[in-house]
Every structure is written in C-alpha cells, then in structure tokens.
Amino acid sequence: MSDSVVLSLAEADSLAREVLEAWGLAPDHAAAVAATMVAGERDGCTSHGLYRLLVATASVEKGVVNPAAVPEVSEPAPALVRVDGKGGFAQLPFSKGLPLLVEKAKAKGIAAMALNNSVHFAALWPEVEALAAEGLVALAFTPNHAWVAPAGGTKPVFGTNPLAFAWPRPGREPFVFDFATTVIARGDIELHRRAGKPVPEDWGYDAQGNPTTDAKSVLDGAMRTFGGHKGSALAAMIELIAGPLIGDMTSAQSIAVDAGRGGSPLGGELIIAIDPAGFLGDRVDEYLAHGETMFAAIEGQGARLPGTRRLAARRESLAKGLAIPAAFHAEILDLLQK
Ligand code: NDP
C-alpha cells in the first residue's frame, strides 16, 4: 500500500468542508475554514494545513468554538469595519468583512477591520494576500494565549503574536511575510517534547523562571520573544492594537477564558489596508517600480525574499496535487465517523 494519498486541491477542499460540516459548521463557515487549510497545505505550510482539521474539530469538541456562528458586520467609523465573529472561527468573519474593508480602503485611502470574538488558529498570510490581490498594502496582527515572557522577565504575558505584511507587485505575486514574534513556533517546541529532544537554552524558561533545555518545561513555563527587547516590544504592540484597541482580549485574558481546556485562542485580530493610490494618485506604477528595485537588490545578491519558498510549494502543488501521508488521510476520514 502506498504511504501517501494524492488529492487535487478541489478534492482536499471538499473533504475538509465535509469534515467541518459533519462537526456542525454551517456551509459558509466550513468553506471559509477549509479554504485556509487547503491554502496552507498547498503552500507547504503544513502546520496550518489539513492537520488543522484535527485542531478545529477538537476545538468544537471542547466547546471552545461556536460552530453555528453567524458573524455580524458593522461600521463603527467611516474607515473602520468591525465583524463580531460570535465565537466562530476567524476565517468566516474575515470573509464576511473583506469586501467592505476593500471598498473603504479604496474610498478613503486607508481602512482597518477588527475581527472580534473569533477563534484563531491559522496563518495570517492568506488574509493579507487577499488584500494585496486587490492592489492594497496590508498588515495583520493577532494575540493568542499568554505563553511568552517579556524581555527581562520570565513569566508569560504575551501570546506568540504573529504579524503579517503584504505588498502588491505589478504583474506578479505580492511580497508577503508572516511570522510569530517568538524565537521559535510553539509547535516546534512540542515536536521536540514528543521526540524527547532538548531545546536550545534561549527558547524559554521553566515555570520557576530558570533557563532550561527541557521542551516540556518551556511549554509549562514561558517562551521567549525573538530579538530580545525588540520582539518583546512588537509583541506588546500586538497585544494592544489587536486587544484593547479593538475592544477585545489580551493573551492573558484569552488563556484565562480558556480555563485549561487547551482550545484554540478566542479573541481579536486587527487588519489594516492601505491603497497606494491614496498617497500616489496616478503615480502608483512609478513608485511601485521603486519597490521592485529594492526586491532586485535583495535577490541580486542571492538573498531570498520571504514567500519564495511558499510560492514554489504552491506551484508544485498546483502541478502535482497534494500528497498526504496515508495514515493522516485515514485520520481525516475517521473524523467523518464522529
Ligand atoms: P517562520 O519563522 O517560519 O517565518 C515565516 C516567514 O518568514 C515566512 O514569510 C517565510 O517565507 C519567511 N522566511 C523564513 N525563512 C526565511 C529566509 N531564510 N529568508 C527569507 N524569508 C524567510 O514563521 P513562524 O513559525 O513564526 O510562523 C509560522 C506561521 O504560524 C505564520 O503563518 C503565522 O501567522 C502562524 N502563527 C499563527 C498564530 C495564531 O495565533 N494564529 C500564532 C503563531 C504563528 P516562506 O514562507 O517563503 O518560507
């Protein structure tokens, strides 16, 4: 028996939707979540790919997410969109608010969208990429659960707090980066724990605040931000602008609300969209060309742009489909039996 199963993107999408609908998500909710998972799998971001079906269904089982959520879109100010996710997964409120965010950014030059009361478990690049596809510059931020110590401290205050940025490029895919503000992803520490492998001493602290190379002790203690005080300040900024600023929870509040269930984090996300034409008018092409000069200077010396690996994986998946380990495929099919 082959040890992998190859699915077309359409087959993966319909399988993911089928599982999520079997777990009680409404069709639009399931479709929005499935699209992000398939995009993650397609782009070689497997930690946010179909594997997340296991995480999403576990969150439904633990009662952390509202599978029947019907998001509510509102306009608190002329350039602001708010979508209350009503406790559902963040992809649904994002998809509901996106058209209005684009419309406002194009009308006003800049607009922002708050997703509130939503369960996040995903990568942020699909969201900023969707805005860049509309010719907009985009930024996205979200806190999650307090697992990360501030620089100079050893106790959890921040989430792993990812940020993402997208810049539209004429005639080609946008420049996109998207990463957490920690030294390393929490999932990597978990993988070390499972493999019984030590972690580098600069990844985190144990619960007593001592540096440690024991993965489980870091998971039970505190992770570190990247770049010392710089990553720490960015993590604090993300807590503020995607928490209190938009009337939502900090990572410390969100983990308290989870009350030990170990579900995906509930909270907010802030997305900012800027229309280059707002500043540049009909000189957009001229100035975007200056950006291209910078990209050429980076790549011209052999350095790679963020997103290059992901886009190469995308091309490969589009050509060959998605190869899923057979055992994992069987696990997904099992989810249909629940
Ligand atoms: P990484 O540290 O793997 O960094 C990813 C980014 O850096 C990508 O844009 C990647 O581009 C780029 N990159 C990586 N290596 C290089 C290199 N050598 N040169 C240039 N660019 C490079 O990401 P994280 O582990 O911190 O985060 C992974 C994902 O997890 C993100 O999508 C993030 O949003 C998500 N996440 C979500 C959370 C949530 O609460 N929702 C919490 C934490 C993380 P490329 O893809 O092309 O390699």
From TrEMBL:
Protein keywords: Oxidoreductase
Gene3D superfamilies: 1.10.1530.10, Hypothetical oxidoreductase yiak, domain 2
An MF annotation (GO) of this entry: oxidoreductase activity
Entry superkingdom: Bacteria
Keyword Acetylation applies: no
Family per similarity comment: Belongs to the LDH2/MDH2 oxidoreductase family.
Protein name: Ldh family oxidoreductase
Organism encoding this protein: Novosphingobium aureum
